[in-house]
Amino acid sequence: MAARLVKRCTCLLREATRLAPAVSPVGQLRLAWGAQKLLTSSATSSSSRLPGPLSELVEKEQVFTPYPERQEVDQLIEKATRPEELLELLGGGHCLHQNHAALMLIQLSRLLSEKPKDKALLLQDARFQQLLHLVNSQITAVWHGTLVKLLRSLYALGLPTTSKELRSVEQEVRWRMRRLKYKHLAFLAESSATYMQEQGSRELLAELLVHLERRWAEIDDSRMVVAMMMKTGLLSESLMTRLEDKCLELVEQFGPEELRKVLVTLAAQKRRSVPLLRAISYHLVQKPFPLTKGILLDLAYAYGKLGFHQTQVFQRLAADLLPHTPSLTSSEVARCTKSFAFLKWLNLPLFEAFAQHVLDRAQNVTLPHLYNMLLAFARVNFHPEREDSFFSLVHEKLGSELAGLEPAMQVDVVWALCVLRQALEAELQAVLHPEFHTQFPGGESPKDQSTFQKLLHINATAQLEHPEYTGPLLPASALVPRPSALDRKVTPLQKELQETLKGLLGSADKGSFMVATQYGWVLGSLFIHRRGGAVSPVGRQGTVPNTFSFRALPRC
Questions:
Q1: How far, in Å, CA of 416 to CA of 427, rounded?
Q2: Contact 336/354 with Cβ under 8 angstroms?
Q3: Would you say 165 and 130 are in contact if contact means Cβ atoms under 8 Å apart?
Q4: Among 63, 69, 5, which residue's Cα sits nearest to residue 38?
Q5: Phi, psi of 121 (to 5 degrees)
């Protein structure tokens, strides 16, 4: 019986040796494990029959390779607190299997994650080079999960791009790309995408992104899809589109933290995915989960950045933020006010609380925060209940610090005060002075054009709303309408209105359309209706004649 068993096992091992060059090293391990299992099965049961052809055995055992039994050296690697303890294991007579060297490198990267000087010394250590050589010689037998962590660790340790061991690990990852689980690919993308870009491994990164996109349907974890959007969304447009689809599918499983991360990611990448935003808004309104102060601020920022309007969400954000107002910092108040102002959404109780917050901390509020608050109030035309106290504080701060701001910020502040009808003569003079406004040449950038238009608005305010104002004003040459003012895209409503007016007038020559004025505003249409029903145009197309004047507007 024993002789027959030995003869049968000898034949099996001879067949395994013959087929060894045709299979991968991982397959060799599987064959060896198959032989070991066959020996155990035969020894324990004399009646068990061995499979005939070796191909059946390989097909049966190719599902997975069992992880080696846990040894003492595994505990030593995990409990190591100094790199020296790990390096001593190489010469300590321990029995190291194919994963131990990789695990030691992974633990080394963790211990030295915040010690760049020690990393440089480690790279020069002969024992570390020996460890790299050991890993390189056993790389084909390293397990999938350990392999991706090993690559991340080698990047973190700062191995040079010319390192043979680093390139060997990268090549092994590329060979195994199709066999890696999606969670391994996601981990590699989350942890190593930045390193790949810096280390010049763009081919590996491109191949990784392709596999992530092709296998996106395998994602079944909400945490994974959120992390992928945050880490790799910017690297591939098509992958980000797939992740948005998967996010839309899993949005019901998201908690408040996942919703916050998705919205902030979309805002950071300026991706206004309307279906996803609608789904997130629905769950924010319908689910009663509590929202912390930080989540509320981030949600307000994301909606404001994306310009997505959802009244019910805003009402909940305002209602939940109101009790937190006393605990907010000045920067958080300014940031939140700015977010709602971008949405052109005004909640009176919340904005009153913000204004009161500024008054309560008048001694500590800085001009940059006050600057953002003023611009936000101007965008929604909000006048606080304690208007006199609030703007007295504003003028007090501006009196000594306005000149210290950047020129464009000075224009923004005075423009906001003009919108709120709180500008003082000294503040108007500060930005209309010839030495100041000559700093803004006829720039073509949107920022320069916006600043110049605000100067025109300030000049018009000084002329029309401040009869006592004596100057200075912008020169006549600066008041000539610029061609760029007429290049704005006509909205569908404006286009429909112009067509209706042309039909009523009987001819387009009887009216002027898209008229740029010296006050910085572009009028959609302009014509004179005389007694008896006669209609005549005003000046030539696109301009207003100098004889066309306005009286000063009365103060409300």
A1: 11
A2: yes
A3: no
A4: 5
A5: -70, -35
Burial (Cβ within 10 Å: 0-12, 13-18, ≥19) of residue 104? buried
Instruction: State both tokens at 358.
Output: 């500024």
Query: Which pair of tokens denotes residue 462?
Result: 């000084």
Q: Is 8 exposed, middle or buried (0-12, 13-18, 19+ CB in 10 A)?
A: middle
The DSSP line for 128-188 is HHHHHHHHHHTGGGS-HHHHHHHHHHHHHHT--TT-HHHHHHHHHHHHTTTTS-HHHHHHH
Residues 6+ apart with CB under 8 A from 63: none
Could you give the CA distance from residue 315 to residue 69 in angstroms, rounded to a whole number?
58
Q: Examine the pLDDT at 544 and tell me if it is beyond 50.
A: no
Q: Outline where DSSP puts E strands in 389-429.
A: none
pLDDT digits (tens, 9 = 90+) for 222-273: 888 998 998 888 888 999 999 999 999 999 999 999 999 999 999 999 999 9
pLDDT band at 499 (very low <50, low <70, confident <90, very high): confident
Segment holding 516, helix H or strand E: strand 512-516
Q: Identify the residue whose tokens are 């050296």.
A: 73
- Cα separation, 94 vs 15, in Å, equals 32
Nearest to 429 by CA among 467, 472, 468: 472
Nearest to 354 by CA among 368, 381, 373: 373
Q: What are phi and psi of 525, to 5 degrees?
A: -155, 155
pTM above 0.70, yes or no: yes
- Hunting for tokens 């950038």 — which residue is that? 445
The string of pLDDT tens digits covering residues 93-109 is: 666 777 888 898 999 88
Q: Tell me the residue length of the chain.
A: 556
The pLDDT score that the predictor gives to residue 46 is: 40
Q: Note the pLDDT tens digit of each residue in 42-62.
A: 444 444 444 444 344 334 334
pLDDT of residue 254: 93
**Would the CA dihedral through 45, 46, 49, 54 be positive or negative?**
positive
329-348: b (≥16 Cβ within 10 Å) or e: ebebbbbbbbbbbbbebbbe
The pLDDT value recorded for residue 518 is: 63
Residue 134 CA to its chain's centroid (Å): 40
- Report which listed range, 128-132, 203-207, 316-320, is most confident: 316-320
Strand extents, DSSP E, 314-455:
none
Angle at 453 between CA 525 and CA 478, to 5 degrees: 95
**In the prediction, which pLDDT does 31 show?**
41
